[in-house]
Description:
12% strand; Aspartate Aminotransferase, domain 2; single chain; seven-stranded mixed beta sheet
Amino acid sequence: xxxxxxxxxxxxxxxxxxxELKSYRERFYLGEGELYFDGNSLGACSKDAEESLLEMLxxxxxxxxxxxxxKDGKYFKYPQYxxxxxxxxxxxxxxxxxxxxxxxxxxHSALATFYRPTGERYKILVDELNFPSDAHAVASQVKLHGxxxxxxxxxxxxxxxxxxxxxxxxxxxxxxxxxxxxxxxxYRSAQLLDMERLTKAGHDxxxxxxxxxxxxxGSVPHDFKKVDPDFxxxxxxxxxxxxxxxxxxxxxxxxxxxxDPGLAGWFGNKKESQFLMDHRHDPELDADAWLxxxxxxxxxxxxxxxxxxxxAAGIHNIREKSLFLTDYLVFLIENRLEKYGFKNGTLKDHNxxxxxxxxxxxxxxxISLALKxxxxxxxxxxxxxxRLAPVALYNSFEDVHKVVDILEEIVTEKxxxxxxxxxxxxx
Length: 427
Ligand SMILES: Cc1ncc(COP(=O)(O)O)c(C=O)c1O
């Protein structure tokens, strides 16, 4: 979309005055003068997340073990209750999603279920730019089957180090591939893949297709009725602001209900017979079959409040503002920062990008430290990327303008030069 942006802070203020989501900012805890641009890594805490957590603590205080019985068993059925609240984000049925584990464990659980290598079809297809934990999970699952990761994992290479060509993925979907595990949005460059096209191409070749939505959930709407993936996983602590280590989501397409879960446990048993304590597993006939042990209630409670907030705001409205904010950021980068060696490393096409911008610079690491000194919180990804995520529910156009002002000041005054290039433990 062509937008007629203008330079100058007055223009940013004008955009803010027309922003229909601006009242949501008050729901979040943001420091005085802080410019939080790292919601793509760990979303800011909201009052809504805090309230649902405190509510659960209150129930625990008063009810103790009876927490599982009160409110019609709401907390006993909490994984699916939260799954249901997540359904509008991906246009899935409520019982196709359950909230459990972390993202990596959900990949293990899905692969333990769907990866059934045979002599002819034994490979898992991944891409070179996916998040390391996905690659580690895939390698260990291959090894559990006694296979050699070098032979059983097929890696689609990037042509430019930033993006993955969809045609290359499709070309790699050969008859020996059993499962493809792909990211919806690449964690570094923010490239958004055409999930519908790739899932269909995989299915045409008899491949099980799973997606990791960690970098798109809560900023990009998905339509699983159209995409029709076999399974999907995502974390809830990035754009969704569920809290540090909040539990992840596991989506299982309803066509797979009744499939034996690869990793079973008593919480995956049918609820009505769970407490009969039978050693024979009688799994639920929906995504809850993939639950294992007692849900991590305190890591789930904040998700309830924040999902209600996202649903009230509407994921399509969130996407619209997110694209507007990132378009504006790219405009300012191109018009004010390129002359200092900065480059936008994210595709501009709305259909091909998620909710953050990869700002590239040869001195990106030290500049990211200088930003933090100025109360701007981005993150850094090797080798040269500062990720900047203006988040629709709590960042403003004026915030974007201020960040660009500060970046310009840092490079013109060379304040970043006083920092060491030696990487910190967490960057
Ligand atoms: C794409 C992607 N997959 C998986 C993970 C790992 O998630 P978790 O720590 O919940 O296992 C991350 C974490 O940032 C991620 O970005």
